[in-house]
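User: Could you go from structure to sequence for me? I need the amino acid at each position, not a summary. Structure tokens:
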């Protein structure tokens, strides 16, 4: 009989969103006259912008004509999109060759697939609280995981030190769930650490477009030395509303070599074996994001989410509650009042004011006692949720 990958038995049940769904369902069954204010969702609520929709339509029309039809796309991405993304980086003074950019179907796919580049005996460092996929993808591969806790004392932005011994370093900035963003100086410490140890940083920049402070880095490649040790994984999901359309990109500089193996060349080999490219139509829509028109339109949508963040932050400021995030990220990470646990606070908000958020404990043990609000909901719901939170917690 075949032996399945027994590491799947080591996975913890992904109970976080399941539990939230169960609890909200039970509440609505018991209280059919109530409606919920959902501040927990990680999905966007605004549609794709006009520039993207127009390009998607053009892509569909191209597929209807013999002259413009596209079959299989290049496995690593359409040259027009790889170039558009390289130009986007150039605006931030990061020089990339188009063939250092790999077009993907989204960051989740890449975060799992990229582990093909590393030996199973390598160790993965996960800074917690963290996006759960980092841990799960490594458990599935049977890799040893080093959990690095963070907390209020370091603003949820821990620094490397000699006690840490890991080969793959996950850094998510702006962070999901805390919304914390590493400064240039802090990232430089991680880059120096990785170069010294020969580790590789997997930099998750899914929320870079939400950064508004000019001095904060959007890309790890703004940091000197990163080209020798970092891979950056990005997504158009939150930046441009592609959660259902699916498009992302991964940057692997040609300068990363370990044990005589070049990671960029290995990834070309991987993609040409394991994928047949991303749909032409979707890549055409994605390229529109990087036009001046597309940038203006996506930033109008981001501004709506940012205003949601402002509304929630003002409520927490008024209440004197500690939080981080919100300013340069679409998530607000707050301390639960009165020493409530994450799930106690979840129940309290659900039962008293019908506001649904995400318990911090679901992102790692050090998230206990904290709570995440997403700002991707509608402005109307956010205003009402903030009003209810203020009224409840003022008591
Ligand atoms: N990385 C982080 C930190 C995320 O929060 C998410 C989605 O919520 C992803 C990656 C996945 O993005 P995608 O939709 O491109 O798979």
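Assistant: Here is the amino acid at each position, in order:
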């Amino acid at each position: 009989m075949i032996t399945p990958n027994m590491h799947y038995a080591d996975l913890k049940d992904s109970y976080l969103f399941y539990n939230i769904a169960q609890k909200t369902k039970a509440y609505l069954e018991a209280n059919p006259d109530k409606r919920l204010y959902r501040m927990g969702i990680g999905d966007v609520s605004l549609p794709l912008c006009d520039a993207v929709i127009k390009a998607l339509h053009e892509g569909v029309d191209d597929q209807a004509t013999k002259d413009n039809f596209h079959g299989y796309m290049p496995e690593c991405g359409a040259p027009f999109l790889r170039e558009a993304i390289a130009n986007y980086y150039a605006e931030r003074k990061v020089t990339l060759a188009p063939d250092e950019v790999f077009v993907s179907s989204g960051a989740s796919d890449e975060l799992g697939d990229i582990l093909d580049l590393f030996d199973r005996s390598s160790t993965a460092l996960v800074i917690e609280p963290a996006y759960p996929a980092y841990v799960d993808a490594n458990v599935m591969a049977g890799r040893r995981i080093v959990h690095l806790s963070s907390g209020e004392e370091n603003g949820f932005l821990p620094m490397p030190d000699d006690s840490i011994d890991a080969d793959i370093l996950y850094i998510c900035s702006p962070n999901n769930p805390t919304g914390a963003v590493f400064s240039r100086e802090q990232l430089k410490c991680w880059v120096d650490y990785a170069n010294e140890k020969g580790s590789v940083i997997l930099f998750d920049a899914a929320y870079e477009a939400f950064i508004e402070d000019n001095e904060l880095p959007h890309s790890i490649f703004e940091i000197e030395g990163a080209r020798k040790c970092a891979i950056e994984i990005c997504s158009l999901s939150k930046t441009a509303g592609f959660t259902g359309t699916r498009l992302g990109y991964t940057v692997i500089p040609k300068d990363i070599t370990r044990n005589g193996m070049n990671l960029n060349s290995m990834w070309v080999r991987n993609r040409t074996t394991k994928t047949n490219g991303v749909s032409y139509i979707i890549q055409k829509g994605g390229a529109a994001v990087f036009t001046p028109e597309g940038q203006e339109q996506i930033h109008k949508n981001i501004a709506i989410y940012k205003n949601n963040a402002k509304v929630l932050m003002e409520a927490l400021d008024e209440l004197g509650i500690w939080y981080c995030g919100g300013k340069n990220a679409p998530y607000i990470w707050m301390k639960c009042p009165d020493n409530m646990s994450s799930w106690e606070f979840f129940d309290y908000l659900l039962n008293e004011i019908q506001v649904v958020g995400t318990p911090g404990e679901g992102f790692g043990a050090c998230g206990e006692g904290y709570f995440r609000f997403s700002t991707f909901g509608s402005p109307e719901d956010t205003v009402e949720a903030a009003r209810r939170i203020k009224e409840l917690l003022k008591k």
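One structural detail worth keeping in mind: The mean pLDDT is 96.
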